[in-house]
Amino acid sequence: MSLSSTAIEPLRFREALGHYASGITVITSNIEGEPIGFTCQSFHSVSMNPPLVSFNVMSVSGSYPKIRQAGRFAVNILSDEQVGISNQFAQRGVDKWRGVEWKESPLGNPLIAGSLHWLDCEIHAEHAAGDHLIVIGEVKALDLHVAACTQPLLYFKGQYRNIAGHCAV
What we know:
The protein is mainly β. The chain has a single domain, classed as Electron Transport, Fmn-binding Protein, Chain A (Pnp Oxidase, Chain A, Roll). It is built from three helices and twelve strands. The chain has helices spanning 10-17, 64-70, 83-90; strands at residues 22-23, 25-31, 34-40, 43-47, 52-58, 72-77, 102-104, 110-112, 117-129, 132-144, 154-156, 159-161. The strands form three sheets. The protein has a seven-stranded antiparallel β-sheet. A three-stranded antiparallel β-sheet has the order 1-11-12, with no helix packed on it. A two-stranded antiparallel ribbon has the order 7-8. A hairpin with a 2-residue loop joins strand 2 and strand 3.
């Protein structure tokens, strides 16, 4: 039995993938004193030894060539209180850093204040995949903010979502 050779419609494909909940991150770097960043929901772990993570970015990204040039990046894992940050860094052609509080990571990458966690990485590998690049980073430093009631920012079916539950105070 063979599969039909008809093409998958891009909008239908996007809708199907939208049924998979994902966390929201902002990938950041700094080159020649200029902070760079973009919202990314295609982030995941790759390996424990060595500690590797991966994100996907559009091949035509305006931000990624600068990150590649820097050779390093931070993954800012957003909390459910950072919808505005996610939206701000998802835009093109605007000052993404206006009003954003940040500090420098051990590798020199911007760490966005209020993020749930961060990972500081050096670029380990890059692979072309369709209209995207798969970027693999080796984690060199990390920080886990332990706050009892802080939840991750999630995206599901085209909307931001929260984890249902109660915090023990």
